[in-house]
Each structure stands twice: as structure tokens, then as C-alpha cells.
């Protein structure tokens, strides 16, 4: 079973790129972030025509998450992250697909830091950590996939000394990610490739993609039930080089069938 995550940076504006990639790679499940589209403007018919069912949580101009499935029913479990009824950002959606709980998330950026945006990020991270702990209690296979807006270690960022004060790399943000993983989650990419330089995001500026000046901020966390079923993982880096593409590349894992 191939599961992918992709921050599309605008699902309608990048629809040709998304459809081309889906056609090329045909993952079984896809988590999308940054739809940047209200609920009624999600391109459901185009996604259906590509062979995918979809559930989505839209928001005008910003955020937005979706889960796509090819050939398997999607049973929606949750829309929005618990813990703050006043938080209206569309950043989390959760579903059951073929016996696996899929949590698709778009964690806040947090810049400029310090300030209210970093405070919101840390509060959201705390809510995610509490929800993740509950998911582990169910003793089910769970994948938490998406754009975490965190580079966990210096290996995950080009020239880390330039990012020391950035909300994606500040010590408290990295510590929050570390604490989340320590609940019993497996960082899929690092389990398979512990020492390799792997990036999932390249800025549009200063020829970052051409220079491979990237960041690894899109992650898969696997519950204990899945860590031994992990077969493969990778980044479809070439997609970042396509015309009118997102600044993220799709990231994927392959899980053994039971």
C-alpha cells in the first residue's frame, strides 16, 4: 500500500501538476495540504476522474487538507484537531482507509517568531501531541502524515546556522516534534535512511531547487503496529522541477499488506 503526502500550495492553481503526478505514480492514499480553496471549490470531479475518492476540509485562501483514496473506501473519522473549539483553521482531517487510520495535518508555520504566530504553533503542537497519544491507545495502525513545518535535526536543513531563529527550527519546536515521536511513533524516512540528506521543500527564491538548498518538513509518523510493515519511502523530487509546481515535492511510503 503506497501512501503519499503532498503540500500542493493551491489545489486549483496546481491541479494539472497534481493530476500529472497522480497519473504517473498512482499512490493508494494521498494526504494533501494547503488546498487554499473553500469547501465548495475543491476540484472533486477532476479528482474522481483521476480515479480517486476524496474527503476534504477547505478554507478560503488559506490552509485546507484532504485525503484521497484509489480503490478503497474512505471513512471520515475527524475533521479539525480537538482541543480548541475557537480554532477555525482547516489543518487536520482523519479517516480510516483499508484498516489504517490516516491523519492528514498541516501544522502552523509559526513565523515571525517569537510572537503570537509561534504561540499558536506551539499550542497546536500540544493539541496534536495529546490527540496522537489517544490514537496510540486504540492499538490500531495509524499514519500521521503531512507538512509539519519542522526540521527535526540539522541533517534536515541546508545551512542550519541560517535557520536558528526561524519558527521551523527553533529549539522549542524541534523539542515538541521530539516529544511527539517519543510517544512511540516512528519517523518513516529516518527509519530507512538515518544518515542521508533528504529534502521535501525548496523555496521559490535564489534557485533553491537548482542548488538543492532544501528542507525536510513533510513527514510520516507511524504507530508501532506499522513500523515493521514499512517497506520503502522516498521523495518525488523531480515534481518540484515541473512548471507551475508547488514549492514542496510529494513524499511517499510503502506499507506491506497484512
From TrEMBL:
Site keyed Interaction with DNA substrate: positions: 248
Residue(s) at site: Transition state stabilizer: 149
UniProt cross-references to NCBIfam families, sorted A to Z: exoDNase_III, xth
BP terms from Gene Ontology: DNA repair
Positions bearing the site annotation: Important for catalytic activity: 218
Alphabetical list of InterPro entries matching this protein: AP_endonuc_1, AP_endonuclease_F1_BS, AP_endonuclease_F1_CS, Endo/exonu/phosph_ase_sf, Endo/exonuclease/phosphatase, ExoIII-like
Pfam families attached to this UniProt entry: Exo_endo_phos
Domain of life where this protein originates: Bacteria
Sorted UniProt keywords: Hydrolase, Magnesium, Manganese, Metal-binding
Organism whose genome encodes this protein: Pedobacter chinensis
Name assigned to this protein: Exodeoxyribonuclease III
Residues annotated for Mg(2+) binding in this entry: 7, 34, 147, 149, 247-248
Matching SUPFAM superfamilies: DNase I-like
Enzyme Commission identifier(s): 3.1.11.2
Cofactor(s) required, per the database record: Mg(2+); Mn(2+)
Similarity comment: Belongs to the DNA repair enzymes AP/ExoA family.
Enzyme class, UniProt record, top EC level: hydrolase
CDD domains named in the record: ExoIII-like_AP-endo
